[in-house]
Amino acid sequence: MNQTPQHDDSLTTTQPRVAILGGGPGGYEAALVAARLGAHVTIIERAGFGGSAVLTDVVPSKTLIATAELMDIGRGATELGIRVARDDTHNPIDALSVDLAAVNARVNALAAAQSADIKERLLASGVVTVHGEGRFTSPHSISVTGCVTDDGTPTDDCTVDADIVLIATGAAPRMLPEARPDGRRILTWTQLYHLDEMPTRLIVVGSGVTGAEFAGAYHALGCDVVLVSSRDRVLPGEDEDAARVIDDAFRTRGMTVMSRSRASAATVVGHGSTEHVEVTLDDGQVITGSHVLMAVGSIPNTADNGADKVGLTLTERGHIQVDKVSRTNVPGVYAAGDCTGVLPLASVAAAQGRIAMSHALGDSVSPLVLRDVAANIFTSPEIATVGWSQRDLDDAGVRYTATTLPLPTNPRAKMMGVHEGFVKLFTRTDSGTVIGGVIVAPRASELIFPVTLAVAHRLTADMVAGAITIYPSLSGSVAETARMSHQRAPH
């Protein structure tokens, strides 16, 4: 059961009051830090602890993708010498099939379990949890309405006053006026996990990270997928070589990718067994499918919580402006996560929240350094990046060397039947310091870590190359790329 905020007169001036609006990664990580530092902490969440990252975004989507990965592995079994059943005409029988209702039941159960674990940890740390809708009445006072207990029973509304406030309200899917989600046929990524049957044809509008991940996952699960991309290729904001690998992989595996196509509307047509969706493109072309996923970006959750009423500086898109220690322009008020627009990653939100509380409560703290943050796209293969991108290096006029090693040359990759991917390192031409990297590979999210260490600690390529790796291993390609980056000292 959630706890009612206690304003105990016995709280001394040495125990500051902290209020956190939003229970996602930025919020709950901040709460844990503040509690460890001796603050009286109240966290307010309207949906469930862990926020959208745990309930409708990161945890559910990556659980779904993990299932899709197993389907991909199964389809590649014959190459590895694993027999596939054949019918009387000697045609391969599809031995793998997907029960989407069971998949989504597991996805939702895992998300709920993770949310419960987070709340249990908050309570164990002495954090007061409040389930309700929070809205600022002043920079240091939050009115909470619609309060309920853990079992959904309505309870008294309340006001939470605090010396330090953190806003961590996240973001929500952006919607097109002519393609309003209905939760049945026209969907956002938060609604996919309620489907009981596999779409017969899924149209994915948007080829950024979210669109590419879901398009790849559903195609691997056996769904006919049409990916509508407004650019020349998928993942237009990523490393060009990496995006090209994914674009080629999608097309080679049979996905329909419509480049330079922009959707203007989506409509549900027909009734009963004939019901379907029609997606209209800007050029007038109409695409039909059973369902459409709108993955056209997100907007910060700042319009309805009173953030704009208490003097906070917002950007044109509604994000809360913060500095490198998560301070807003209002004294004592901090912000973290997607509502700030700094970098839409759960890891960054968590770091912002931790930094905010350490700074606010006088602990030692290092400002957020975005160049040291690794990011991953969970397509097949995955794309992991850290540090400077090649585009930014070119734009900044930095003298650098780019060294690339194709992954299929790696012995472990050959054993695994891997035919796609590469390791790319960026080093400063003068010093050999590693300043960025891109890995396209299975489990690139794991392989990027040594490159992240190199970037964060300003290691040279020779330092990375000097570490002996396991043979055979995919990580051996990271060391080999570093050896290829060696700069011979002048005589």
TrEMBL record:
UniProt-annotated binding residues for FAD: K62, G134, D338
Positions contributing to NAD(+) binding: G206, S207, G208, V209, T210, G211, A212, E213, G297
Cofactor annotation remark: Binds 1 FAD per subunit.
Cofactor names: FAD
Family of this protein: Belongs to the class-I pyridine nucleotide-disulfide oxidoreductase family.
Pfam name, any one: Pyr_redox_dim
Domain annotation Pyridine nucleotide-disulphide oxidoreductase dimerisation: ranges: 374-480
Name the record gives this protein: FAD-dependent pyridine nucleotide-disulphide oxidoreductase
Family matches, as Gene3D superfamilies: 3.30.390.30, FAD/NAD(P)-binding domain
PANTHER family: MERCURIC REDUCTASE, NAD(P)H DEHYDROGENASE (QUINONE)
Species annotation: Jonesia denitrificans (strain ATCC 14870 / DSM 20603 / BCRC 15368 / CIP 55.134 / JCM 11481 / NBRC 15587 / NCTC 10816 / Prevot 55134)
Domain FAD/NAD(P)-binding residues, every copy: 17-353
GO molecular-function term, one example from the UniProt record: NAD(P)H dehydrogenase (quinone) activity
InterPro entries reported for this sequence: FAD/NAD-bd_sf, FAD/NAD-binding_dom, FAD/NAD-linked_Rdtase_dimer_sf, Pyr_nuc-diS_OxRdtase, Pyr_nucl-diS_OxRdtase_dimer
Keywords for this protein: FAD, Flavoprotein, NAD, Nucleotide-binding
